[in-house]
Specification:
With 252 residues, the protein is an alpha/beta fold. The protein has helices at 21-32, 60-73, 96-123, 150-170, 188-193, 199-207, 216-227; strands at residues 3-4, 12-16, 37-41, 52-54, 76-81, 124-125, 134-138, 176-182, 238-241. The radius of gyration is 18 Å and the shape is globular.
Length: 252
């Protein structure tokens, strides 16, 4: 069990975008392993199995307020920057508003959350007393290129830049920073952008070598590895969890 150096209390993992999809699977996996969790989402969810902070992470001042009060309440030593969204816009119809919104949630919120929690992340220790702070960013296979989704692709590519740079900045303190880049995963976001029956959905499935979408738990498994004590010598890495889509020659 990871503990906070000053209080000795069990370290909590804060998961953004925690109530549905990939975030929810990460939360359930951690809780099943006996790891305490704090979630963040905009809306309350009475079914959520852990403390939930309601805040719009696309709003920097709401984020700072919510995360600062969370850090005062729980010893948060591990962070999963999972909240994100995509709206498809082909080149020629990209609006400034959509650009700002996609960047605010997928990109800027990762900076805001990480900076707000850095003190607790620095305080996390494993059972041997070694530094054990962890940051995991959720990017997307789309970082390699996304038809009609260039702003999302750019935002998710930026997360790889953050991951590698923060890993360098924090390595001497024993804190790891890694990234998971999922391919298509069966969540509400995927269904919204690729409704059943839409040719886009069929084309996308055809481009995944495994010929199926992933499950949220398959992404949570990769996140769980990066959060674990076993991953203490792994930092700055991006792991594609995508049914082979990142090595396919067919474009999603
Ligand atoms: N699904 C895929 O195929 C796929 C593929 C590659 C990468 N990803 C990435 O994986 C991550 C999770 O995606 P998902 O498919 O699991 O999403 P999802 O099913 O749409 O769930 C989104 C979660 O984030 C919360 N959320 C949304 N906007 C928020 C905001 N402004 N502030 C705070 N919380 C917010 C939602 O709760 P509220 O609505 O209550 O706020 C919900 O808990 C995203 O970063 C996404 O880009 C997904």
């Amino acid at each position: 069990m990871t503990r906070d150096a000053s209080s000795g209390d069990a370290v909590h993992t804060l998961v953004t975008g925690a109530t549905r999809g990939i975030g929810r699977a990460i939360v359930e996996r951690l809780l099943a392993a006996g790891e305490p969790v704090v979630g963040v989402a905009r809306n309350p969810d009475p079914t959520f199995p852990a403390p939930l902070i309601c805040a719009d992470l696309a709003d920097p001042s709401a984020t700072a307020e919510a995360l600062t009060s969370a850090a005062a309440r729980w010893p948060i030593g591990r962070l999963v920057n999972n909240a994100g969204f995509n709206t498809l816009q082909p080149l020629g119809s990209i609006t400034g508003d959509a650009f700002e919104q996609i960047m605010a949630l997928n990109c800027r919120s990762a900076i805001d959350c990480t900076q707000a929690l850095l003190g607790g992340i620095r305080s996390a220790r494993d059972a041997q007393g070694r530094p054990a702070g962890r940051i995991v960013n959720i990017s997307s296979r789309s970082l390699l290129g996304r038809l009609d989704g260039s702003v999302y692709a750019a935002a998710k590519a930026a997360l790889v830049g953050f991951t590698r740079s923060w890993a360098l900045e924090l390595a001497r303190e024993g804190i790891t920073v890694n990234c998971v880049a999922p391919g298509p995963v069966a969540t509400e976001m995927f269904d919204r952008n690729n409704p059943p029956g839409d040719p886009r959905r069929e084309r996308m499935l055809g481009a995944v070598p495994m010929q199926r979408v992933g499950t949220p738990d398959e992404i949570a498994g990769a996140v769980g590895y990066f959060l674990s004590d076993s991953a203490g010598f792994t930092t700055g890495q991006t792991l594609f969890v995508c049914g082979g889509a990142s090595i396919s020659q067919i474009h999603l």
